[in-house]
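Weekly modeling sync, notes
Attendees: S.R. (lead), two postdocs, one rotation student

Agenda item 3: backlog of single-chain predictions. S.R. asked that every request posted to the team notebook include the full sequence so nobody has to chase files. The rotation student volunteered to paste the first one in as an example of the format we agreed on. Action items at the bottom.

Example entry:
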Amino acid sequence: MKVRIIILITIIFTSNTLLSKYKNVENIGPDSLRNYIPNNKYTSLLNFKSEFKSRFKDYNNVMLVDLTHQQILYEENGYEMCEIASLTKMMSILLVLEEIKSGKLSYDDTLQASTKASKIGGSQIFLREYERMRVEDLLKAVVIKSANDATFTFAEKIGGEKKVDGFVEMMNMRAKEIGMMNTYFYYPHGLPPTWQERKKEKVRGNRSTCYDLILLAEEMLKYPKLIELSSTWLDYIRDEPGKKKFMLRNTSRLIKDYPYFDGLKTGFYDKAGFNIVATAKKDGVRLVAVVLGTRSMKGRDKFVNKLVTWGFDQVIDEEAEEAAFQEDIKPDH
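Predicted structure, as returned to the notebook:
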């Protein structure tokens, strides 16, 4: 009898422990998303030169990772799913780059804008119905300006017979391959769902976590073209004789206002807030910061700069000390 009581108590304790672990994880979307996947790639740096302090608290989620050493330097709510707005386009961009790498698409190919693409709204390059544009210029528009019409045009082309629906399926499949187990995409661009979609169809916007977005950023950084474009402050398309040039200005001021930043993507709509995935490189060390859910773009950028500056101080100072130590212990000849 005593043994049975002990077993029963053990089962109850174990169940409560598991419930406590998962109670804060939002069970939304397909059943495949209902498993909380903790960090299983990056280790956490434990010894810091200094503690990170900031009065800026206007955010929901933040994570800073040193990709060079595969270490998490800072994290708050980094594994919670939330709406990501145009950070969605990071996956769309990756699929385009992979399509080009495979030879199925070329930078010199031209794609034709559909009626739907020309009427997409939001941030755009105002593609005209049936207008044709080079793949390289369309990619510039997506990376630099976050153009929804250019993104939609890529989705229709790459998605095959299912067009945009096929592309979204590819987005979700690629996410799982990368390890983004708490990410789900409904759209290729990141525009907010309509009222009807939210209320009747239970669409809650494309959703991800800081951790998943860092996995995605790391995959994207394998492509030099991505850094070339995402570090560009100003560029132009339709730069042809007889046509009016269209200016592309980067949606991230970090690459203009602060040193070491070279990308990667911003996103905003009201419910999601001002979101950013920011990459920076200094002395061979690559950091990626993700901040989600802020209400101030300027405040967000200052916060990211302060966080990344602190991160470099922790990692690069340690490397310099280690190099000096190794030099000191070399035997005399």
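Discussion: group reviewed the output briefly. The chain is about 40% helix and 20% strand.
Action items: rotation student to repeat for the remaining queue; S.R. to check formatting next week.
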